[in-house]
Amino acid sequence: MAFEVKMPQLGLTMEEGTVTRWVKQEGDTVKAGEIILEITTDKLTSEVESEFDGTLLKIVAGEGEDIPVKGLLAYIGEPGEAVGGAQAAPVAAPVVEATPVAAAPVAAVAAPIVTANGRIKISPLARKTAAKMGVDYSSVKGSGPAGRIVQKDILAAAQNAPVAAPVVAAPVAAPAPVTASGAIDLMDGDEVVKLAGMRKVVADRMAQSRREIPSVTQNVKIDVTNLMKFRKQVNEDLGVKYSVNDFILKAVAKALKNNKHILVTLDGDKIIKRAHVNIGMAVALDEGLIVPVLKDIDKMSLEEISATAKDLAERARTNKLNMDEYKGSTFSISNLGMFGVETFDPIVNQPDSGILGVCAVQDELVMDDEGNISKRQFMRISFTFDHRLIDGATAAKFELAIKELLENPMKILL
Question: MF terms per GO, please (predicted)?
Fold first, then answer.
């Protein structure tokens, strides 16, 4: 009996996946646990292993196709086995032309031997020959061991029966060329690329968030002069390389712990008050955006946060994250400071109710009350929140808590 290979569900929110590459081809022998194809989901590219031993009989989903969860990808079974209402393609091997058999006795027309699971007993070579010659072996009596149909039975039946058109499995359709909708005039050199995989999911999620959430973004300017000096001193004294982002993560985690009303989620007509401070850290990839999660970050030391953040970011870029490592966020941070971004409106990463945008550190000249001018370093944070759950004043108090910590960096560690 042929087995169906279906699109796996690699996460609770996964609805479909894109077939990226077939590692195995039709006719290849596969073993359980062996990688047969690669798929791109909403978060990353994953390898799909075979659950069965057998032959890859037929590929149903071509490369580049979007297939829903539990959608059919391929069939695995015995060589030549009928799948999907048609005879599967034979095993990829040199085709041996049938040699004339002298005076082979005509097989008697009778019911063939059927196994307990309802399959006709026929050798792979006989099945292949029947497919090639168009012989219906369902009425051929086998002369092999235990009544098994062998090649000579098929050849004999072919001499005494009209030859039907051979049944050939439909070839896997090549992905259709991507064309524009016609709404935009293309110019010479323009390239049309299908919106698929991670980029498609990012587009869908961002549009969904904008449609569903009445969001508000508030911007706060923070003097981080002392933070930059403190970071430099700590790194020199301890011989470490803590980043500005490490201190921001620690400060936000502490502010969230003291402002739990920010950690809420709307589920229908119910509000879920989150018990854990799990910060999703946005990491930009060429093909999209992925948000690995630092779980229970409020319980981590600065050293643990730094090591965990670096490890997650590196493995996110090399597609080595585990499924659980990008699930379960209760708040998110998107840091574009390294790109010189002065301010932006981040989009809430559902089901979180808020996301903090971190902007560039910039030098500014400041005049004190006595008229003295000095150079200070400032950074802006942009807090976007779900206004159904968080009011402006509540959001402002949370922002001021972050500001207080970043302007007095020793408090971050206390």
Answer: acyltransferase activity
The model's pTM: 0.64
pLDDT tens by residue, 13-52: 667 888 888 999 999 999 988 899 988 776 667 888 888 8
Helices (H), 140-191: 151-159
Q: How many CA atoms lie within 13 A of 168 on its CB side?
A: 7
Q: Which of 386, 347, 411 is nearest to 261 (CA)?
A: 386
Q: Is 268 exposed, middle or buried (0-12, 13-18, 19+ CB in 10 A)?
A: exposed
Residues with a known catalytic role: 387, 391
Asked whether the predicted pLDDT for residue 411 surpasses 70, the reply is: yes
Domains of the chain: 1-91 (2.40.50.100), 94-177 (no CATH), 198-413 (3.30.559.10)
Q: Are 58 and 167 in contact (CB under 8 A)?
A: no
| Spatial contact of 333 and 229, defined as CB atoms under 8 Å apart | no
Over residues 81-105, the pLDDT tens digits come to 887 655 555 544 444 444 444 434 4
Q: Which of 266, 290, 289, 262 is nearest to 212 (CA)?
A: 266
* Dihedral, CA of residue 62, residue 63, residue 64 and residue 67, to nearest 10: 50
Compute the distance between CA of residue 274 and CA of residue 295 in angstroms, rounded to an integer. 12
Q: How would you classify residue 255: left for phi > 0, otherwise alpha for psi between -120 and 50, otherwise beta?
A: alpha
Cα–Cα distance for residue pair 306/243, rounded to 1 Å: 8
